[in-house]
Write a structure and sequence with these properties.
Blueprint (H helix, E strand, L loop, with lengths): L1 H26 L31 H18 L10
């Protein structure tokens, strides 16, 4: 049983070491031309057509925060007379 634990521990350590060694090589990969960004989706549109999205509002975020606030406050006002038998 101890050999199984040592084997498993060695696999975990070697796997973690492999991840640590492999990650820096992935982070150094850069595209060849950083100066020009080409968006192929906009290729067929004319000059007078607006293809970008307009700026959005934060209303959906506020509604989410209000909903989460209602849920959090609902927990505060639970009935205190409840037991574990309910």
């Amino acid at each position: 049983m101890i050999m199984n634990m040592k084997s498993t521990l060695a696999r975990i350590i070697l796997g973690g070491l492999l991840l640590v060694v492999a990650m820096p090589s992935l982070s150094h990969a850069k595209p060849q031309n950083d100066d020009k960004v080409y968006n192929a989706r906009l290729d067929t549109y004319g000059q007078g057509v607006n293809v970008s999205m307009e700026e959005g509002s934060t209303a959906l975020t506020w509604m989410l925060m209000i909903g989460l606030g209602v849920i959090c406050f609902a927990v505060l006002f639970k009935d205190a007379k409840r037991t574990h038998l309910d």
